[in-house]
Amino acid sequence: MRNNRSNELTDRRSAAADAKKALLEAYRTAKEAAEPNESARQAERQAIAAAREERRIDRERVKAEERERAQAEAAEREAAIAAAENADAEAREAAEKSRISRVIEDEAARKAKRDQRYANRKARQG
Q1: What is the pLDDT of residue 4?
Q2: Of 3, 21, 38, 68, which is least surrounded by CB within 10 A?
Q3: End-to-end Cα, the chain, rounded Å
Q4: Entry pTM
Q5: What is the DSSP string of 21-49?
């Protein structure tokens, strides 16, 4: 009976080793069969990644263009504000000069009238 048990152990060991070899062989054949599909999937993943990168670059380009346009608009607005402030300052300066010249003319006319009155008075007295 001892020999019988020993043979059963040996049989079980060899059966387990054969099963292990069969599983390994089945795995290898499945892997080799899946390789064409794997390369196709890898190519598809690379194409998707390239498209994603292209979309990202396009988004960045659009953002940069939008940023440049916004900066140009801001510069334009600032230039318009500066021009308006310049025009206001020039208008105020012109108004001030006009007022000063009117005051000087009025003062000169008043002095001329006073001198005329003085001359008339001297002419009556003299």
Answers
A1: 55
A2: 3
A3: 175
A4: 0.45
A5: HHHHHHHHHHHHHHHHHHHHHHHHHHHHH
